[in-house]
Amino acid sequence: MALKDAAIQPSDIGYVNGHSTATEKGDIAETQATEKALGKDTAISSLKSYLGHTLGACGSIEAWASINMMNDNWFAPTANLTDVGPQCGDLNYIQGEGLTRKTDYIMTNNFAFGGINTSLIFKKY
Predict the structure, then answer these.
(1) How many CB atoms lie within 10 A of CB 16?
(2) Which runs of consecutive H residues, i.e. helices, occur in the chain?
(3) pLDDT of residue 115
(4) Which of 32, 109, 117, 124 is disulfide-compatible with 89, CB 3.0–4.6 A?
(5) CB within 8 A of 25, min separation 6: which ones?
(6) Which of 24-43 are b and which e, b meaning 16 or more Cβ less than 10 Å from the residue's Cβ?
């Protein structure tokens, strides 16, 4: 729905900040859905690996940080991610070193208790 609202193609998204709470079922479901919606090799990392889960604040903090990374053309890796589970989607998991990439669009995901799920797309200004 976010892609439709933004009137862009899946390939326009250069980076996804995953909700990624490090729960097996949640991360598998999110990465499989991301692969299905955006395609294989989509660049993804999780800022929660640096901040923890800030509950109600995570959406705004992660959106702000993701926008700053887009403006800097550099995306942080998921801290301490060394092995991606075999059931996870086929994505470009940013590990180790950050990813230098120029993109005009990013997506950030946030999922809340009770099924309130949000994917926001931001365009470089």
Answers:
(1) 28
(2) 2-6, 24-38, 48-51, 58-72
(3) 65
(4) 32
(5) none
(6) eeebeebbeebbebbeeebb
Nearest 5°: phi and psi at 114?
A: 85, 5
Alpha carbon of 87 to those of 32, 36, 48, 90: distances in Å? 8, 14, 21, 9
Which residues are CB-neighbours of 49 under 8 A, at least 6 positions away? 20, 22, 78, 79, 80, 81
Q: What is the pLDDT of residues 39-76, one digit of tens each?
A: 998 999 999 888 877 777 777 889 999 999 999 999 99
Structure token pair of residue 69: 């990374």
Beta-carbon count within 10 A of 71 CB: 10
* Single-letter residue type at 32: Q
Three-state DSSP class for residue 34? helix
Extract the tokens encoding 54: 């800030």
